[in-house]
Amino acid sequence: MGTKQEGKEKVTEQQEAMTSTDQLLQADARLDPKAGSTAVSEFAIEAEGLTKAFGSFVAVDHISFKVKRNEIFGFLGPNGAGKSTTINMLTTLLKPTAGVARVNGYDVVKEAAKVRQSIGVVPQEYTADEDLTGWENVVMVGDLYGLPRSFTKQRAKELLQMVELTSAADKKVENYSGGMRRRLEIAMGLINQPEVLFLDEPTLGLDVQTRAAIWGYINKLREQFGMTIMVTTHYLEEADAYCDRIAIIDHGKILKIGTPRELKEGLGGDVVTLTVAGDLAEAKAAIKEILAVEADDLEANTLRFKVKDASTTVPRLFDALAKTGVKISKLSITEPTMDEVYMEYTGRSLRDEQVSSEEAFRQRATIRRARARWKRARRA
Amino acid sequence: METSSTRIRVDNGPLHGLWAITNRELKKWYKNYILLAMSLVQPILWLGLFGKSMNLGSLFTGTAFNIPGLNIPKQLLDQLGAKVMLSTFGTTNYFSFLAAGMLAFIVLFTSMQSGMSIVWDRRLGFLSKLMTTSVPRGNIIVGKALSSVLKSLAQATIVLIIATLLGMQFRQGINALDFAGMYLALFLMSLGLSSIFLMLALRSTSWESQMAIMNLLNMPLLFASNAFYPVRLMPGWLKPVVEVNPISYANDIDRQLLLGSTGMGSLWFDFAFLAVFAAVFTAISMYLSWKYLSR
Question: Which of B1, B28, B135 comes nearest A131 by C-beta?
Fold first, then answer.
């Protein structure tokens, strides 16, 4: 009976979320976030020769890229690659040492105030005030942007509904779980109806379900509000599944930009492993003729070759092989993973990096707990 | 997207977000009932225990001593004592003298705490959130200073009420304007001090060092002022220190207005000194916050 009840609740929650996004859409029509601006740009973000040096250490080294409107653009790279530094420059927190960047058509140095008005930022850390409630936090951010209170309240209600925090809105943030806090951060980052949203590691340290939910919101924002989203992540599978384009960055340089598909295909295509019964040489010849690739002998009766778009091209092989009398006894197609792409360009695996940044995240959580203890001690 | 849109007026003025920052700090304060209760208990302890036990007046008036052979009447001794008290403290009642000083004392202690909030905000990431919003950088400091000022004044009000209940004697014919003057003096002093301590904390990430600064400075600032003792009787080397200490001027104003004492200087000079103090340090802190909060 308990599960039935839960299921029912879930449905209501989803309905709630849906209606709230509809309301949000209406709210969008009410607010013209670019009121009074003349900037029109095809690209949401443009960076050219963007550089940041801390002393002799060059954190970001002459990077150039463009992010189209309504795109989810992923920044993928290990710790210290320059992802956060780039985000900090684009969100006007850091002044570039050299180069220019425009966000929403505004120069991040010369028109910093306009950039700030038109973007939303969800930083890597949890930034909400733990002593206040979720509701108070969201409304406060609205006030910080100078939005009219009536608008802020309406918007805050809708946003909290969207990230499913309505029932927890009046609880102090110190009682929130990690997933709830991240969702609250997203609501806080959206209060000013930004055209470009920057998310720095939005899913770091969260469980798989929560991560999927967060990406659900991100997708919704893009699809329904035409928002442009720039996101950094360590999780290769997330970058692969959710980003329209990915930039691989390491040692402050962009190594490659492309759609996940392009990047993976850039490796030479899918790996096809074929076990045949019959003449191996004939099979090889057929593969060369039909697919124009050389197959390698792997072991007895097993061939391996790389081919683009294997799922549509390999079936053509079946007929050819049938004519020669070679039988296929086993076939497997492995699409290259982002991990392989990453290895190809950076020369290392990202798996270890994930561990170290989750470690750093835990350390910050420890500081927060220490603070809470300190506060309790001070009260006593 | 629909074309018909009523435009929402977004406030881009130089003061937007200021109240949001002040309001946040105040909320954190008045919603923390334990902290609020503590801030109520503290002045009771100081006034009730320290103020009442340090009853200097009884040294002269409540005594039973006499000089052998002279047999001075008790009434005369008491009158002499009262004269000594009046000329030293500007009032015959030391408790009233101390209570007036306690107003600035509590304001000092509360203002000094202001730096801590910015250290925590930096450590916990809230500051970086602030920086991504369009709030003008100077408002971050001023907003925090303002919240510290309001807290200080609330505390001072509590002190005043408790002191009155414990027997603080106001001057004859005291009026609302005198109290307004008192609040103005405390406001200016608190604004300047809060700005200083926020400034010191601007780039700091360590609350330990902030605590150390507070502990190092609070007692000297207090003792090198006229909070407990009049300047006139202090050694010559200490006087110049006391005379640049803003706390002395706030005390001086409070005592002139509330107790009717003769002050160190004219009221106008006292107010001018505090106004310049507050203006200078607020300006410096605003400048530094534009400079150091945006890298």
Answer: B28
Please check whether residue B225 is in contact with residue B245, taking contact to mean a CB–CB distance below 8 angstroms.
Answer: yes
Separate counts of helices (H) and strands (E) for chain A: 14, 14
How far apart CA A82 and CA A53 sit, in angstroms, is: 10
Residues of B in contact with A34 (CB under 8 A): none
Q: List the one residue out of A181, A308, A44, A346 whose CA is nearest residue A316.
A: A308
Enter the DSSP assignment of B232: G
Spell out which residues of chain B touch residue A31, defining contact as CB-CB under 8 Å: 5, 7-8
Residue matched to tokens 């809470």 = A372
pLDDT of residue A80: 81
pLDDT one-digit tens code per residue, B50-74: 888 877 777 766 666 677 777 777 7
Nearest 5°: the CA angle A15, A238, A266 is: 135
**What phi, psi does B42 have (nearest 5°)?**
-55, -55
Q: Domain ranges for chain B, please list them.
A: 18-53+90-293
**Nearest Cβ partner for A132 among B19, B27, B120:** B27
C-beta atoms of B128 and A93 within 8 A: yes
For residues A160 and A133, is the Cβ–Cβ distance under 8 A? Answer: no
Going by pLDDT thresholds of 50, 70 and 90, the confidence category of residue A350 is low
Put simply, the answer to whether B10 touches A140 (Cβ < 8 Å) is no
Counting Cα atoms < 13 Å in the Cβ hemisphere of A241 gives: 12
Residue from the list A93, A128, A130 with its beta carbon closest to the beta carbon of B132: A93
Q: Is the CB of A184 inside 8 Å of chain B's CB atoms?
A: no
- Below-50 pLDDT ranges, chain B: 1-6
- A317 CA to chain B: closest CA distance, Å? 49
Q: What percent of chain A has pLDDT over 90?
A: 39
ipTM at complex level: 0.83
Can you give the pTM of this predicted structure?
A: 0.79
Could you say which of A29, A127, A141 has the minimum Cβ distance to residue B128? A127
Cα(A252)–Cα(A60) distance, integer angstroms: 4
Domain annotation for chain A: domains and CATH numbers: 2-34+43-258 (3.40.50.300), 269-338 (3.30.70.100)
- Report pLDDT digits (tens) over B142-163: 999 999 999 999 999 989 998 9
Q: Please answer yes or no on whether A151 and B8 come within 8 Å at the CB atom.
A: yes
Say which range, A48-57, A256-265, A290-299, has the weakest mean pLDDT: A290-299
